[in-house]
From TrEMBL:
Top-level taxon: Bacteria
GO molecular function terms listed in the Swiss-Prot or TrEMBL record: 2 iron, 2 sulfur cluster binding; carbazole 1,9a-dioxygenase [NAD(P)H] activity; metal ion binding
Residues covered by the Rieske domain: 25-128
Protein name: Carbazole 1,9a-dioxygenase, terminal oxygenase component CarAa
InterPro entries: Cholesterol_7-desaturase, Rieske_2Fe-2S, Rieske_2Fe-2S_sf, VanA_C_cat
CDD domains: Rieske_RO_Alpha_N
Enzyme Commission number(s): 1.14.12.22
Gene of this entry: carAa
EC primary class: oxidoreductase
Keyword tags: 2Fe-2S, Dioxygenase, Iron, Iron-sulfur, Metal-binding, Oxidoreductase
């Protein structure tokens, strides 16, 4: 007797979320990753070649030569072009093949045969526009003022790569209550009530998930925002021994690398104009505070990496998890809308 096995179809919504929603900006690496030679990165379900031309301007192409699929990132930089190491095919930053030295005049020359990507460098990081289709001009990259207003804010970028789905990292940041327990030995998160009730407050660009009746005591709230890039923000009160600048601000943004790997960007920020107070805080950060912050991140990393990939299928959520539920539902709605629009465009 033969038993027919019906394959289980993959959930297209989950797959889209796994590799990253389209038509958004994402941070993909710190700026210092790209120096003299081309670099290959796997991000957002793609393999991307990045390089700088003679003026230091950053360019990005899909890391696949249109001739035979060899990695362009292994080739030679010719200004705004990459020369494939396999057969010398030259591809310009806009994806156009400018020269095929082995067969001059062939139909490959002059064709836009390679996917190109718009990239920008801001706040010490490289951002890539993950359009579902190539566009000549991407929408503006709009970051929170804490990363753009150098006259008011000073920041450090902390970049790390964690094993696990980036959505678990989103859940972690959208969970202020874990700071009271997981980070209870931290110099900055040892205070406040161990019980709390939370509420959700809508904003023009997203929402804030916050403790009711407690503010500026611990990790008391998280903001999620969509400004053409998804970012999160929180504040942690600091004692005077942490230097000037008021609350310690963290801005986070996260990108999928490959299945089960996350690129995590945490900007540590204080509100300080240029001057001796800013210089004092930056000195304290590099010489005392940075190690403590890495210790806190290490606690998060261990917890998330030890969670099973299907942990979210075995949850029993309660009131503290309203922010996670809200964010997951919103992300799924965005994915469903993008898939419906793609299906309509195809039809």
């Amino acid at each position: 007797m033969t038993i027919a096995i019906t394959p289980i179809a993959a959930d297209p919504v989950d797959h889209l979320l796994e590799v990253g929603l389209k038509d958004l900006w994402y941070p993909i690496c710190p700026s210092h990753f790209i120096k003299e030679n081309p670099v290959s990165l796997r991000r957002l379900g793609r393999k991307i070649a990045l390089w700088r031309d003679g003026e230091g301007v950053l360019h990005a192409l899909e890391d696949r030569c249109p001739h035979r699929g060899a990695p362009l990132s292994q080739g030679v930089v010719l200004g705004d072009r990459l020369s494939c190491p396999y057969h010398g095919v030259e591809v310009r930053h806009d994806g156009v093949v400018t020269r095929v030295p082995g067969s001059p005049g062939c139909k490959l020359e002059g064709s836009q045969a390679t996917r190109h990507f718009h990239v920008q460098e801001r706040a010490g990081a490289v951002f890539l526009y993950n359009g579902k289709d190539p566009v000549d001009v991407p929408p503006p990259l709009v970051l929170p003022e804490q990363l753009t207003d150098d006259a008011e804010y000073s920041s450090f970028l902390c970049y790390t790569e964690w094993k696990g789905d980036y959505r678990y990292v989103l859940d972690n940041v959208m969970d202020p209550m874990h700071g009271t327990y997981l980070h209870k030995q931290s110099h900055s998160m040892a205070e406040g009530d161990s019980t709390a009730k939370f509420g959700i407050r809508q904003t023009d660009i997203g929402f804030v998930f916050e403790k009711e009746g407690q503010r500026n005591v611990n990790f008391d709230w998280t903001e999620w925002a969509d400004t053409g890039i998804h970012w999160m923000r929180l504040e942690i009160p600091y004692p005077k021994t942490g230097g000037p600048g008021g609350n310690f601000i963290i801005v986070g943004a996260f990108s999928p690398i490959v299945k089960g790997m996350t690129a995590a960007f945490f900007w540590r920020v204080r509100k300080l104009p240029p001057g001796w107070e800013r210089d004092t805080w930056r000195f304290l950060y590099k010489n005392r505070l940075e190690a403590r912050h890495w210790h806190v991140l290490e606690q998060d990393r261990v917890m998330l990496e030890e969670m099973e990939p299907d942990a979210n299928q075995h949850e029993n959520l309660y009131q503290h998890d309203l922010g996670i539920v809200r964010l997951r539902r919103h992300m799924r709605n965005l994915a469903q809308t993008q898939l419906a629009e793609s299906a309509q465009a195809t039809a």
